[in-house]
Design goal:
Strand content: 5-15%
Radius of gyration: 18 Å
Distance between the termini: 41 Å
Number of domains: 1
Largest sheet: 8 strands, mixed
Order of helices and strands: HHEHHEEEHEHEHEHHEHEHE
CATH superfamily: Aldolase class I
CATH topology: TIM Barrel
Bound molecules: iron/sulfur cluster
Low-confidence stretches: none
Structural class: alpha/beta
Length: 293
């Protein structure tokens, strides 16, 4: 049976999506209002940049994901659509503008993420901490989740961020260790686990996420979930890898929604408090619900 990768490689086109991934991105009334506020503050949301299929649902739930520290990354993961290259200088007003946008949007839960800034001494940890503090100053009822890069494993950078006491500390492992050289060559699986363990030992709620469809086996997915539990990760998301452009890694396989359900039960059986697993699940999908689990 010719799988999606062989067909994609044979035709040079991206693998055809199965029916369960063919969704229109509903842009309800909330969309233009959010867009106006976000653009007004010169900010980036991952929701828009990634044309996330869950945007409407999340924005109507009062959650959104902001990307700080610019939109150029110092790394070049083979699954990611973010531009790689020389980032722009730091924008020290950004934390304030994020806080203002959160207040204007009336968000109940905000996720703050970023590109990786290996060009900065603290990897951008200071700006993360300042953004958390500003959001707290501006909006008392909004929970703050962060989805951070690995800060090259620097304890000083991790301490800076953890001391700002985010409600949820997230760092994605993205895939199984065997695939790191091909999928995220500048990252290190053990280092990512130590970043998660550091935050857990600081008493924070910890979250991670990964994609399937890059060639991982069932045994590897199970071992990854066990490693995350061992690192005291409480919340996990599992989603389908989708090839952003023909220059990115091809999809090896599309996992069926029933398989995602099976992995959700397995992960809950391993002791995770909250699991979101599904073809359209992204790191911040229903992020607010994890804190009520
Ligand atoms: S480090 Fe993050 S933003 Fe940068 S290329 Fe990798 S996934 Fe994309």
């Amino acid at each position: 049976m010719e799988d999606s990768r062989e067909r994609a490689e044979a035709t040079g086109r991206r693998a055809r999506k199965p029916s369960w991934l063919k969704v229109k991105v509903p842009l309800g009334g909330g969309f233009s209002r959010v867009r106006k506020i976000v653009d007004g503050q010169h900010l980036h949301t991952v929701c828009e940049d990634a044309r996330c299929p869950n945007m409407d649902e999340c924005w109507n739930r009062g959650t959104a994901t902001f990307m700080i520290l610019g939109d150029v990354c110092t790394r070049n993961c083979r699954f990611c659509a973010v531009q790689a290259g020389k980032p722009s200088p730091l924008d020290m007003d950004e934390p304030q503008r994020v806080a203002q946008a959160v207040r204007e949007l009336g968000l109940r839960h905000v996720v703050i993420t970023s590109v990786t800034r290996d060009d900065l001494a603290d990897g951008g940890a200071g700006v993360f901490a300042e953004t958390i503090r500003r959001v707290r100053e501006y909006v008392t009822h909004c929970t703050v989740e962060i989805l951070v890069p690995d800060f090259q494993g620097s304890p000083a950078s991790l301490r800076l961020v953890c001391e700002a006491k985010p409600n949820l500390f997230g760092h994605n492992v993205e895939t199984v260790p065997r695939l790191y050289p091909r999928v995220r060559p500048q990252a290190d699986y053990r280092r990512s686990l130590s970043v998660l363990r550091y935050a857990a030992e600081e008493g924070l709620w910890v979250k991670s996420g990964f994609m399937v469809g890059l060639g991982e086996t069932e045994e590897e997915i199970l071992a990854l979930l066990e490693d995350l539990r061992e690192a005291e990760v409480e919340v996990v998301t599992i989603g389908q890898y989708l090839q952003p452009t023909k220059d990115h890694l091809p999809v090896q396989r599309f996992m069926h929604p029933e398989e995602f359900d099976a992995w959700k039960s397995k992960a809950l059986g391993l002791g995770f408090r909250s699991v979101e697993a599904g073809p359209l699940v992204r790191s911040s999908y229903r992020a607010d619900s994890a804190l009520c689990a």
